[in-house]
Model the fold of this input.
Amino acid sequence: MEDSPYGRGDTAWFVKDRFGMFIHWGLYTQAARHEWVKNWERIPDETYQKYFETFHPDLYDPKDWARLAKAAGMKYFVITTKHHEGFCLWDSAYTDYKATNTSIGRDLLREMVDAFRAEGIKVGFYYSIIDWHHPEFPVDKYHPQRDDQAFREATKDRDMKVYAEYMRNQVRELLTNFGKIDILWFDFSYPGEDGKGKEDWESEKLIKMIRELQPDIMVNNRLDLVGSGDFVTPEQFQPKEGMKNADGTPAVWEACQTLSGSWGYHRDEMTWKSVNQILWMLIDGVSKGGNMLMNVGPTGRGEIDYRAKARLEGIGAWMHYNSRSIYNCGAAPEGMVAPPDCRYTYNAETNRLYLHILAWPFQAIHLLGMADKIKYAQFLHDASEVRFREPGKQEHSNLSEAGHAEDLTLLLPVVQPEVEIPVVELFLG
Ligand code: GLC
Done:
């Protein structure tokens, strides 16, 4: 980790836990057509107000959410305390635009934090530095009313300093009233013409205050302030290799991903990923030394919908047997290259290597250069031995192919075990 003039949070637990739940929940869940609906459809406050007036998540039971996250194998969660629309899930003293002022009348955030903590899940707060509701947030290229020239003219004296102070006040609340917070996830900067960056947010002041309030907290890299981020946040793509810091050292990184093509609840969005694909993403990320933050967008009734639930349960079924290849794991040691259709992850403490078999082959997998490196091999899901052929040995010219002396050949059953992605645990030594 590079030094930073802004201090560093504690990332030791994070790179071990590897898997978290992102939750996008706000008024946009009722529009049910993406959390950017206010921007996309250029909806003014007066029209958007109907979602505030009708917001009533009567089925909300965060204990349920926490149980689902835990069963899926997620070790931390990050909740949108406030998204770009400006609505706050907690009882903030600095705004009326909050859950406690809707008909549900509850501090939704506090209940969530309590429920997840009770399940032993670490707590992260997403906080949007963008705010499309605040009366002093200057209209810019992403503001819903950006094209309304009369509105731009009428609001041209908005004072960013007042808004920057509002943010500090709210972040102070979040870091003072909810106990130890493990992650602060800001979103997002767009410096340049008609945008906003570190000068606007007063990022330096903000990060200094955060480090004073919670020195161990991890802060992401979206404040437009070089050196202020404890981790990098590739979004909606799978990095092709492990990510690096500016000085070339490996970065702490977390890919944030969606189950379907939206963060907020989107009723009609149909590009739901399969359980197999999501597991592939998790495994692929860990094999490159990264984390995955997988998003759910609960409904306006306050429930995680059936499509999301089915996927979380599928992930959980796999994690039940195979989480040992995820937690405390990262990239394989230099020079160990996984065979085709496979990924390696590695636990340095136990010196075990995990072979994830993404496409089931016929009987043999050749582990290149591993002949003298493996003491024992077993399937992770049932601890059954996986035998291997003596290096370089050919039993019968028609029955087996001679391997190279330096390679090791695993002998697999013809039929894939009943596991979405089978994992072979390799004891190195
Ligand atoms: C984007 C979007 C936002 C979402 C975030 C999650 O920056 O603005 O809607 O919350 O990605 O990473």
Summary: The chain has two domains: 14-325, 342-428. The pocket of alpha-D-glucopyranose is lined by residues 24, 35-36, 187-188, 235, 256, 263 (CB under 6 Å). The CA atoms of residues 106 and 354 lie 45 Å apart. The first strand starts at residue 19 and ends at 23.
